[in-house]
């Protein structure tokens, strides 16, 4: 049910200023109490409180995985996980950042390996220490079914592992919780790479285009442009044919189609 | 008829031959096989430490998956998977204190109290198809093939989850006889194959697998049938080495019982993936006219 009388909890952009009329709430960062505007994300709230992120923040858009946070709500035994740049603060949150969690990544040469599950098993034998406790899945801020992809790898199903783990942003929270000490996210990355290289059929048009480029189709054009005088190049740029703004996709073609 | 099926990790990798032949056979018998969604490792070996509940979580989670997906029975095939799942299920049915602890630990799942029944493939065949009906479905009888029913350790032990009483081999015998084979009793049908011991060392003088093969060969058995990838590893994969080191007198071709079933039902030999059996002799099957469909 939607309670419309409550102030909606939305993040207010990327500047840590107190929005007009915003209430402040107490949060506890590494055990110390701070009053912060209730509309901020954890990351902005920490900056509001005076912290500066030199590491542990990157895209601020929920995709780089640099800002995992672990928190508990006062009085509740449950551990919660989120991305500091995405999760809005709540009153009486006890939180800490885990910007990095050590997990060994196996080194491999993708071109030299075989596209079979045994390759993953050999590089990450820890996978077989899994007891299916599911703490990894509970820890994932991206709601990835981590136990599902670990199981898929053990079952030799690389495609399934690649697809289930697709949303992984490599934050490492799964590994931080694993009682089998498995580096899940590194193993999943390997599964996706093997899937893309050896299992997923290659797109014909992409293969053909790469062949054309490598075959030198565009080299004369580039040579011509790089041999031009600056003024001529500028004039050519200004006079260039442009796709009209807001043209419906696939409706526009240049007059000269010989380069397509 | 539709059944919920738990394959297990090995049946998806090294023991595809056990799995594929089983599924194809059930389909030929008109049974729709539905693999449960989102299953994980069964735990492989049932933990005997009384308070080691964390190792119950894996098998119980699979049973929860089955319950969640509306199954009252979960059919499984690998002897090890059957054993861990059935024993974990028994614990959840009988030990209320441990059940409660496990349910509370798995607070991300629905509660479980043993509502699903774990059924071995052989029991399923007997109960739901029956040997008479199976016999009628046979297209290429395994006539003249002398088979030994190799049960190994975990199909019958412990007694309260065993698929049949210890020392009797009625289920596999019933199936094989329905397929037209001659079942030859031998004294090593429930002896240990050597389990995981082989991983730590070369086959040794008193190799358990060698003893089983020698006893089977001595009894006049031409083919061993098993339900367990670990048994197959010890008896089948190691057989060449045992022969080279003169630990066994003569080879005894080793098959999964589902491969023999599939052949007798007239299915293409391809579904049996014999390329994965190191000690399965196609010559033997040909000479007994068991490869009719091929
Ligand atoms: S900063 Fe990139 S995910 Fe949060």
From TrEMBL, chain A:
UniProt entry keywords in alphabetical sequence: Iron, Iron-sulfur, Metal-binding
Residue span, 2Fe-2S ferredoxin-type domain: 23-101
GO MF annotations, alphabetized: 2 iron, 2 sulfur cluster binding; metal ion binding
Top-level taxon: Bacteria
4Fe-4S ferredoxin-type domain location: 119-150
Keyword Cell inner membrane belongs to the record: no
InterPro entries associated with the record: 2Fe-2S_ferredoxin-like_sf, 2Fe-2S_ferredoxin-type, 2Fe2S_fd_BS, 4Fe4S_Fe-S-bd, 4Fe4S_Fe_S_CS
Gene3D superfamilies registered for this protein in UniProt: 3.30.70.20
Keyword Cell membrane: no
Record's protein name: 2Fe-2S iron-sulfur cluster binding domain-containing protein
From TrEMBL, chain B:
Ranges for domain Cysteine-rich: 4-85, 148-235
This protein's record includes keyword Oxidoreductase: yes
Keywords: Oxidoreductase
GO molecular function: oxidoreductase activity
Pfam family, one: CCG
Name of this chain's protein: Heterodisulfide reductase subunit B
Organism: Desulfopila aestuarii DSM 18488
Taxonomy of the source species: Bacteria, Pseudomonadati, Thermodesulfobacteriota, Desulfobulbia, Desulfobulbales
């Amino acid at each position: 049910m939607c309670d419309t009388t409550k102030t909606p909890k939305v993040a207010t952009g990327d500047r840590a200023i107190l929005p007009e009329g915003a209430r402040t709430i107490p949060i506890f960062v590494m055990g110390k109490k701070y009053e912060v505007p209730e509309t901020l994300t954890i990351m902005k709230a920490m900056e509001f409180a005076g912290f500066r992120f030199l590491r542990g923040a990157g895209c601020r858009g929920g995709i780089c995985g640099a800002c995992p946070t672990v928190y508990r709500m006062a009085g509740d035994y449950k551990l919660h996980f989120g991305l500091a740049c995405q999760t809005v603060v709540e009153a009486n949150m006890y939180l800490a950042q885990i910007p990095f969690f050590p997990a060994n990544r196996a080194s491999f040469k993708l071109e030299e390996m075989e596209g079979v599950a045994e390759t993953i098993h050999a590089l990450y034998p820890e996978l077989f220490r899994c007891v299916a406790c599911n703490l990894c899945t509970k820890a994932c801020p991206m709601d990835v079914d981590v136990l599902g992809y670990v199981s898929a790898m053990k079952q030799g199903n690389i495609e399934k592992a690649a697809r289930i783990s697709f949303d992984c942003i490599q934050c490492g929270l799964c590994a931080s919780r694993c009682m089998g000490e498995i580096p899940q996210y590194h193993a999943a990355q390997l599964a996706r790479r093997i899937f893309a290289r050896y299992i997923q059929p290659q797109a014909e048009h992409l293969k053909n285009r790469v062949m054309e480029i490598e075959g030198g189709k565009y080299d004369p054009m580039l040579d011509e442009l790089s041999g031009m005088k600056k003024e001529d190049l500028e004039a050519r740029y200004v006079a260039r044919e442009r796709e009209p703004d807001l043209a419906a996709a696939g409706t526009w073609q240049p007059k000269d189609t010989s380069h397509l | 008829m539709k059944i919920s099926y738990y394959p297990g990790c090995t049946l998806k990798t090294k023991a595809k031959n056990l799995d594929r032949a089983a599924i194809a056979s059930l389909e030929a018998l008109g049974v729709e096989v539905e693999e449960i969604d989102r299953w994980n490792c069964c735990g492989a070996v049932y933990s005997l430490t009384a308070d080691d509940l964390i190792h119950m979580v894996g098998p119980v989670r699979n049973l929860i998956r089955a319950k969640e997906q509306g199954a009252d029975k979960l059919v499984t095939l690998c002897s090890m998977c059957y054993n861990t799942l059935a024993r974990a299920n028994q614990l959840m049915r009988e030990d209320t204190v441990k059940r409660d602890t496990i349910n509370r630990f798995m607070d991300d799942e629905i509660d479980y109290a043993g509502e699903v029944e774990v059924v071995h493939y052989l029991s399923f065949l007997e109960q739901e198809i029956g040997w008479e009906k199976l016999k009628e479905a046979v297209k290429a009888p395994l006539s003249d093939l002398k088979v030994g029913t190799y049960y190994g350790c975990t199909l019958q032990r412990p007694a309260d989850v065993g698929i049949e009483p210890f020392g009797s081999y009625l289920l596999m015998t019933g199936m094989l006889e329905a397929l037209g084979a001659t079942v030859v009793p031998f004294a090593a049908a429930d002896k240990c194959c050597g389990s995981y011991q082989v991983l730590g060392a070369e086959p040794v003088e008193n190799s358990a697998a060698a003893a089983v093969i020698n006893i089977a060969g001595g009894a006049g058995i031409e083919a061993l049938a098993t339900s367990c990838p670990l048994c197959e590893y010890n008896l089948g994969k190691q057989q060449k080495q045992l022969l080279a080191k003169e630990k066994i007198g003569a080879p005894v071709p080793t098959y999964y019982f589902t491969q023999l079933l599939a052949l007798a039902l007239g299915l293409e030999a391809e579904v049996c993936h014999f390329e994965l059996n190191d000690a399965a002799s196609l010559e033997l099957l040909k000479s007994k006219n068991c490869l009719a469909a091929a």
